[in-house]
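Cross-check.
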Amino acid sequence: MTPRMNARPWHRTPGSPLLWALTMLLLLAVAGCSSSPQYLKAAPQVSGNLPASGSGQAVTLSVIDGRESDVLGSRSGAVMGTDTITLQTGDVLPQLRSQAEYALRQMGFTPADDTDATRPRLTLTLERLDYAHGNRQPLLGEAELEAVFEAEATHGGEGYVGRYTSRRSQSYALRPDVEENTQMINDLLSDGLNRAFGDPALGQLLAR
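Predicted model, tokenized:
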């Protein structure tokens, strides 16, 4: 007599295709958020502890964005990545000028924007602002940021040029969101401005 085998019927779990579809949509949404571009807002702050060099002299001030691109880099480090980080010239330039004017007033000068050749002149240039993805920390991500300012002062036929570099490395387990990257970039810009306007040689030339 042939033994009879009991076959267990297969039952499809109700709702499993829907659950699978929702899970995939969630994963795609998360992936989309992590790879979407970030647009930062500049809000650097200059320290109030700057050397007082002037006695009310007017200084012609020019502020320039000398960067090659508004794109600082990408969170993944990919050259053609979609997770780019951008700080637009139209956003950063007015903020830099406002803080440069504030710094000059703290130093005892009166900022001006005319072209009087007899006045001392200061040209502040943001030459570089980069956001790179480092790989030095195992099991962690790392952001490497760098800002470079140049300040050129001229007065009475004499000139002075200073370059000021600020760097920051930040390790993380989760990629920084737009608020965290905004804070890091603004801290970097603030440090660069403080280095520039805190340079005693700069104030001394403008005050001659």
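The chain has four helices and eight strands. The CA atoms of residues 71 and 165 lie 19 Å apart. Passed to J.P. for a second look.
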